[in-house]
Design brief:
Distance between the termini: 47 Å
Strand content: under 5%
């Protein structure tokens, strides 16, 4: 599991660094600057919510890296025996009993939570502006 996810993370980091390097060189005007706060976030938020709420319904049913490694090494069924003491309302990216609409709703709620946490971290890191 660690090996697969490490390679994925390294690959995503290299792709991001390459794109940012390219943009800095060719189109620095596309990078954040003195734009109003909402303009910087509006398109990514709408895009993410569309992906999480609509395109997620067409996601592959194939296992992700962790599930595939668990299958290969024969410990995938062990997860069925693990019980958490805290509730997990969005297990398997769905809401129990809601069908496909539960997948959309859990994707949207998860995205909103992630954006909220990221925005909060950015606000904490900002110097006070009077």
């Amino acid at each position: 599991m660690i090996g697969v996810h490490s390679l994925i993370g390294i690959g995503e980091g290299l792709i991001t660094a390459g794109i940012l390097t390219y943009l800095i060189t060719v189109r620095p005007d596309l990078l954040p600057g003195d734009q109003p706060q909402l303009n910087k976030w509006l398109i990514p938020i709408i895009g993410t919510l569309l992906i999480a709420g609509v395109l997620s319904l067409f996601a592959s049913a194939w296992p992700d890296g962790l599930e595939k490694v668990a299958e290969i090494h024969g410990f995938g069924e062990l997860a069925e025996n693990v019980r958490l003491s805290i509730p997990t309302p969005f297990a398997d990216y769905s809401i129990k009993g809601w069908g496909e609409i539960g997948t959309s709703i859990s994707g949207i709620i998860g995205s909103v939570i992630c954006f909220g946490v990221a925005f909060g971290i950015l606000q904490i890191g900002k110097p006070n502006q009077l």
